[in-house]
Amino acid sequence: MKSIALALSGALLLAATLVDPTGAALADSPTAYRNPILHSDYSDPDVIRVDDSYYMVASTFHFSPGVPVLKSKDLVHWTLLGHVLPRLDFDANYDLPGPVEFDDTAERIPFNPRMGHRYAAGVWAPSIRFHEGRFYVYFATPTEGVFMASAARAEGPWSAPVKVIDEPNLEDPCPLWDDDGNAYLVHSRVGAGPLILRRMSADGTKVLDAGKVIVEDKVRLPILEGPKLLKRDGYYYIFAPYGGVGEGPQAVLRSKNIYGPYDIRTVLSKGTTHVQAPHQGGYVETPSGEGWFLHFNSTGAYGRIVHMQPVRWEDGWPVMGELLPGAPNGQPVLSHRVPDVGGKFEPVQIQTSDEFSDPKLGVQWEWNHNPADSNWSLSERRGHLRLKAMPAKNFVSARNTLTQVLHGRSSQITTRILVSEMRDGQKAGLAMFGKRPSWIGLTQQSGKRHLTFSYAGTDTVGDVVSAESLLLRVNVDDEFARYSYSTDDGKTFKPFGTRAKLMFSWWKGARPALFTFTSNQAGGIADFDWVRVEDTSIDRQALVTRNHPTLTSIDPASPFMVGNGNIAFTADITGLQTFQEQYSSLTPLLTQAQWAWHSFPNPKQFKYGDSLKTIDVRGQPQQYPWLRDWSEAKRPEIQWLRENPHRFSLGRVSLHLLSTNGKPAQFSDLKATRQTLDMWSGTLHSHFELEGQPIDIETSVHPRLDMLHVSIKAPTIEPSRLGVDLKFPGVAAQLNPNPADWEHPERHTTEVLSKSARQISLQRRLDDTRYFVAAASDEDASFDSVGPHSIRVRPKDRDGVFSFSVLFSAERHQQPLPSASDTHDAVTTHWNSYWNNGGVIDFSGSTDPRAKELERRVVLSQYLMALNGAGTLPPQEEGLFSNSWNGKFHMEMHPWHAAHFAQWGRTELLERSMPWYQQHLPQAKARAASHGLSGAWWPKMVGPEGRESPSTITPFLMWQQPHPIFLAELIYRDRPNPVTLAQYRELVFETADLLASFAHYDEKTDRYVLGPPLIPAQEVFPPLTTFNPTFELEYFRFGLATAQSWRERLKLPRNPEWDRVLQKLSPLPQRDGLYLAVESFPEQWEQARSPECSSGNTAEACWNRDHPSFLGALGLLPGSSVDRETMRRTLRAVESHWDLRQTWGWDFPLLAMTAARLHEPDKAVDFLLSRSRNFQFGVSGMTPRVHLNEHAADLVPTSTGNANADAGYRRLAETYFPSNGGLLLAVGLMAAGWDGDLTYLPGFPKEGWRVRAEGLRPLP
């Protein structure tokens, strides 16, 4: 019945019959689209235009009916017309007669053509062409041959398929009718390659010869497949991917002769994007001549979804996507203006929901194999789909499973099932179809129907269901399914079963499915009243927009930043850097870049060896750059080595603004200030009034150029009173937090290289450091020198709008700067794409009052880390905001800055900094060798040159050593393919060699030991006596085990030395049922409970402070050797006896991750919302670095001009970005979980928290 009243969560529409699976048209711009245009598994797409309509076909493999035909008027929005093949009548095995040699538990299933199924066979890579008034579709089946079907209309009816080539093991055919009347067919072979060309009859029904190999180059073009043959301007072109489905790029081959030889050019590859292997597809042109390439992108369990790239032609070659400066080929665009199709059309959508009211099955449905038509019906019970159970051993061997393509990254599928006619042995319900399938439904035994959840062949049987109908639901998010049911007509849904991981199966993504089968010979009936599909994707623009931060007055500690990951600009309330004096001394309003490093002159030729001390290590003298105490840092050679190289400020861009009296405006003259950071578009909007006259300034940074862009609107202010000053400082002797020196202009130079009416180019020199500056305006402007290192830019027009750009670069930029409109579009596109891709979490449905604040922190942290943690070098702890530790980066902090990028689906941002390890691998190996060890020994505190800085701590810190393995593993989990393994194998293996050789064997205890000398992550312990820290032991174990997994993935034997260490690595130290920080201090918890070290005492000798890193053995790490209950007691002990005042910002995410893995979500949330001084998120989202006043002086000297003591604390920095990266890592774990745990949202309480997440990856 269709009149049932529903109260379905998520505002399910009763009459829904369509869904937009794309999000393709940007919500805020009808003139732009974003990729994918179809988040739908239409793999191997081919496309043509006929008049003003576009038609696309795709592979269906074993599914029946086969070859969907889609239609579009604008290339962005598509609808289904039907299928070319009503059935796959090529072989009896397409009917799934059995036997099937695998079951629901199988993950790896090789195709065997002799068995009773055709999973992974069927229709491969069809092509579509229009010739002399008819549509032609060619396709291959790997076991039968090449076929063709034709039709007068794309909607059909289509002719019965004709076998064009009677030969197995062929794939990917494409025809061409040439200008001279000859017809050709190009195809490949199963296994990919070579490309073979055959002459074909004019009617396209048969080939005329055995074919000729026209392209075969296994070195340049391995795994060559999917050819699409076309002719353009006298050239024959073959568009063909190579290198494999998961990792290969797109090539174009060109020749004047159809038989070749062909010139080869790669035209599209992943580049700097997250789009893995922009692979096989089709090319089409609009009536205006615009070129577009539609291709698939492999996404794992979602299948291979459809992207579209713009194509322009240069010198007879296509240029696809976006061609970055210096890049050899294009890379995918994430968004772009819509195609010019010659008009505007109402968008259409793909059919999904179905009321089963029509006499024919909807075009969205495909059976898992050819159906047994006598066992399903739309007429026996009108308005319902009736499925009759047939015998099957398991789900994957059952016939008549009805599926449809999954659309969108987050979907909700609900069905009403009527079960009164079920029989014993029967199962029926709603499933996600694929390998290791999952489903919710009913199982009937002994006349009773039981609610049942099944996952990978294991059934969980629930309560008896007496109702004759119930509602079943599956929610799909991030490649996981979760199931629920309703017995009250949809008023409430109760979850049942665990989360179930979806799988890419038989070349297709996971699909929702309706099914029934029985273990008995006697059948039974399941009637489905309707299926309703809803796109439950998070409204990302609304999520980001509601968290835009706004200031109406200056916050001296929390200004806003704009940037692109390689350069960042910190702005004051005007949107520029005008009123520095209004800000904290720890807020220097800098412009810093990843490439901008400087060294003071070194006339005495200080070198690394000057910092080395000899230390006895188990009877062997070894040298370390060690300081016994910080007084040694005053030695000239130590000071120079620690300070150089260092980051510096590129320049200051400030507003030149005169009052009507001709005097410079003061801050007190500004009224009605209001500033909003629009994170969705990456633009800072600043408004204020001067003498009642409004001024609006927009500030942004170009996504690919290190270029600041500013637009000023001051319609009532004379141009002579308005301008922008570019000022350039030297480098101060005191580098932290502000390296800018404004007092010694004679120590640096600024040279004008060229100047025109609209642009000026400068060269800057700071000792041996040289960089370039270019400033430009779209309108005529004056560029006047107003000091030895100051340029004033002023508009000449009186229209009240002034836009200009300032580009900073290590090499001189020779091209004109992008226009204001081009820059605006590039910035908006970049940030829209950033937010529309990757992970997000929505807390808006929560009733806990803290949820809004946690959401704000998460969104702001995502923005800040894109600016400060996504550059080409590992970040410094204060990012590009200010200097600490002379701007050098701390390698032990790298995961806290950047690991979350892989977890949140933005792996490409993590990978920007990974080449640093590979570039410095020789240095790391040399350092290990100097200590008599194998592998690569990674430094702690370094600059881009890779030289370790001398310190009391640095040379003995070891918890950064497994980081390259941890990070590479996160990358592999996101891109599990041979390219990733090849790219990072050396890094992983050399790192593992160091881990194994650093652990030394103790014959007395028959175990491997870490240290001494060693300092753990909790940096309070003496290096020469400390050994076996808990976290490092577990991290070394994780690193070695993961490296062995990499060897196995590469089909290499396990490393026996690594296994020896793994087998005998010391167990995690504990005492009295609690884990210890280090084995060498067994009195840890007795000391922590003592009067001297508890109740707020802060004695230096108390070691229950700093990072409680031992908790990370089960938190950041999966804890393979951790006893959960011991760790639970240890967490309680930390809560009771640790001085959490003396911790750092990333410690609270660390605590939260441990609590989450212990399934204590309330504590996890409490830790993330701690009121600790070091974990308070200002209006901009930054957290300060604060220390107890009595201990601040004992810390590494990192900055000058520190704020005064405040209630017993001293503020040493206004930001500490490991807090933000750690927050994202913890929240990601709490939402997406970890391997082996199928709990939904395991880190969030059930009461008060309604959390929706998408785009997140589980951690190991």
3D architecture notes:
The protein has 1260 residues and is of the alpha+beta class. Among the domains are: 293 residues, Tachylectin-2, Chain A, CATH 2.115.10.20; 173 residues, Jelly Rolls (Sandwich); 225 residues, putative glycoside hydrolase family protein from bacillus halodurans (Beta-galactosidase, Chain A, domain 5); 170 residues, no CATH class. It has 18 helices and 71 strands. The strands form 20 sheets. Strands 40-49-50-51-52-61-58-57-56 form a nine-stranded antiparallel beta sheet, covered by helices on one side. β16 and β17 form a beta hairpin. α5 packs parallel to α18 and α15 packs parallel to α18. The longest helix has 21 residues. The radius of gyration is 33 Å and the shape is globular. It starts with 17 loop residues before the first strand and ends in a 6-residue tail after the last strand.
Helical content, roughly? 10-25%
Task: Estimate what percentage of residues fall within beta strands.
Answer: 25-35%
Give the rounded overall mean pLDDT: 94
- Could you tell me how far the N terminus lies from the C terminus, measured between alpha carbons in angstroms? 47 Å
**What is the CATH fold-level name of the domain at 22-88 and 123-348?**
Tachylectin-2, Chain A
Rounded to an integer in angstroms, the radius of gyration calculated over CA atoms is 33 Å
Signal peptide: 1-27
GO biological process, one term: carbohydrate metabolic process
Site (Important for catalytic activity, responsible for pKa modulation of the active site Glu and correct orientation of both the proton donor and substrate): 172
Active site: 44, 225
